[in-house]
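Minutes, structural biology subgroup

Action item carried over from last meeting: produce the structure token record for Iron-sulfur cluster binding protein (Thiocapsa marina 5811). EB confirmed the sequence was re-checked against the source entry. Recorded below for completeness.
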Amino acid sequence: MDIRSREFQPRAVAALHDASLQQALDKARDGFVAKRAVQVAELSEFEALRETAKTLKDHVLDHLDHYLERYEAAVVAAGGQVHWARDDAEARRIILDICKRVDARTVTKGKSMVSEEIGLNTALIDAGLTVVETDLGEYIIQLAGEAPSHIIAPAVHKTREQVSDLFEKAHGGPRLTEIADLVDAARLALRERYFQADVGITGGNFLIAETGSSLIVTNEGNGDLTQTLARVHIVTAGIERVVPTLDDATLFLRLLARSATGQETETYTTLSTGPRRAGDLDGPEEYHVVLVDNGRSRMLAGPFRQMLRCIRCGACMNHCPVYGSIGGHAYGWVYPGPMGSVLTPLIKGLDAAYDLPNACTLNGRCASVCPVKIPLPDLLRRLRHEQFKQAITTLRRRRALAAWRLLATRPKLYHAFERLAARALAAIGGRAGRIRRLPGAGGWTEGRDLPAPPGRTFLERWQTERGQS
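Output recorded by EB:
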């Protein structure tokens, strides 16, 4: 999948002026945040679970080679095959080779962010295969010809009216507007596809080293049908998704649904271990796992390894004011929001994703809700430093930073400038206390007024208050 993060700023501006998008985002934002808050409040040990999960993830990353080898041995013992992909191109080649060998014509897919990361759908379609997304959100955006805008709710940017339009065009018949009717229509359209599929591809929320199992969670049951009805089941997962035991997986499951959708648990939690065995009523004839590196080893060996703790819950973007205002497509690649602003530069390059580490207010909400305590603001700051060190930062921004350094390292000069700016802005704001237009701040004042300061700096007011006490 091509990266378009260099177009972040114009995409963000377009998103802010898209009335339908803003309507969809407003509705989704409140639901995700409120539901998570309720679930967290009802689980007294939630913070203790976060700390335990962080510690366990760090342990796995410290011994990742051991657990991956143990997982591979367990998969092979269960009759499956493990394939190692160094990058996206190798992952695509492995999957295409499997499909070609079994003479596949139709591929059904459960939701998999790794398949999005490696650009799998385009490769399969270019090879002449029919690809059918079975997750409702992925199915909607497939009809729309769009990429996901959220890692757990791919069609969160669509209003109900827009979905109705897509279904009317794709399915014909009377126009459907009720959610239950739209869901039923999707189920009817997809059901025959499950039985036609030669290959079913799913992601893997967790890979269990002790059993060689892949674990997925869904709310629709589409993952179960995808991986049991096709002749061949292929799991795509990043190398960091392995956990030692089934008990360890249950720890993350207690955090995942609460953080992602504000549920106590997902509707379906499904384990797959190898192909169909003698006596099994259903299941695939072949079971393959494609373990994707694609830059993860570099992360593991460097200062950004904490990002590999991510369990792809989406809580960071649900609570991010930037994502909540512009949606996911503005970020230009598979992973949006705070986690994407870290992952995309690390996978695709600091220059290719220049704007993303800087598209953050560093308010810290993402870190406060992350179920595995990834310090996302710290990682974003470090990426900014790396961009500056590598001279990727624009000349305009470098000059602005040089000016800031000049002021910040000279307290007397800083306070003098601060007093001058406070008085000037207060005068511009006048009696209204609001600044409607300000040179150099058009990005702010175009969509809102800038609150004018009271005319005195904080330090001046603080010293006055202390003098009065």
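Discussion: The chain has a mean pLDDT of 93.
Next step: EB to file the record with the rest of the batch.
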